[in-house]
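Quick entry, no commentary yet.
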Amino acid sequence: MKKIKWLLFHEPAELFIRTAEHFNEEINKLSATGYEIEILKLEDYNDKYNNGEACDPIEELKAGRVHMSQLYANSLAGAGAEDFMALSLPFLFRSHDHATKVFESEVGTQLLDHLQERVGVKGLSFTYSGGYKMLASDTPVSCMEQLKGLSYRKNDNAMWANLFNSLGMKQAENEPNVTQTTYPRYKVEAGAHQKYIANTGHSMYLTTIMTNAEFWNELSVQEQMHFMEAAKICSRAERIKSVDDAEVIRTDKDVQSELGISQVFDFDDAERSKLQEALDGVAKKWEKYFTTGLVDKIKNT
């Protein structure tokens, strides 16, 4: 029995625990080797293996002190895999089916290769953290025009600052009016004062399952195929479950009440089209920052 440490970093932990548990099931169905995966929340890992000190999960993975993890695409972009930021471009993915085609195509492979080249970890598959993003706000927002004058977090990255500014928004000096998140992540990211949801669907919140490169290279070719297949199976299932979770929150008033959501405003197709048109310049400006042709490949997949 081979032991694997799987480090969780993001909240809510249950979203990531279920993916790790599913991977554990699938790899042991596919492989005769037998794997025992120790799933570790960040605080538990720090207490048990890092003398209670805080750690950088990417550095732990690169150093081989953990074998696997699942991190946000934007975090990986910040660690050096800049092309992963392209996955957050506004209105890049037409649908969840389109996203799946991209993840499982040569474009997805290109992105995972980029991750390994730039960060030194082996990417296996793409997952969601709620799927499409929405905006949590402290005031009702039922159309794009009502975003004008509202504030967003000062530490949002340059691309998002550009996006929000183009909608007439401003950086917050203190508590922002608006926080970008997804339904399953609402409780973690939205402030207690942000009780209204603008369901804009303007971008995708993505994560990636990864392994330590040395651990990966020590696997036989057959075992590598098993790992890729297990990751593919559990990623597909996780994306479906994540979308289902979001839909429950979007439609169930009792669940919304439990989370502290007062009202959900769904942007209809006409309103989303207006939003997409308003953000088209931002998308065009930023696609030049990434590997030449990457964004066109994603759009044309």
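second:
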Amino acid sequence: MDPYAVIVKPHVSEKTMNAIDLNNELTFVVDRNSSKADIKRAFETLFEEQVERVNTHISPKGLKLAYIKLAEEEKAEDIAVKIGVF
């Protein structure tokens, strides 16, 4: 699967901004048909960072959200700045 088709856009809210600082975790809207393995592979390809785990959630609006926790040596805040969240 194409990494650009899997990860649609960053999801920004007060909760996800706190997750960046406290949990070293980023949140993205992803393709509804993608699996956790697809999301992990796409993120590691696009951002060249190691992923510790991926959790997914389907929102009441029908969007599939992926909570991507980065490995300890990686900084979610640096990636957030790079993609324009801050």
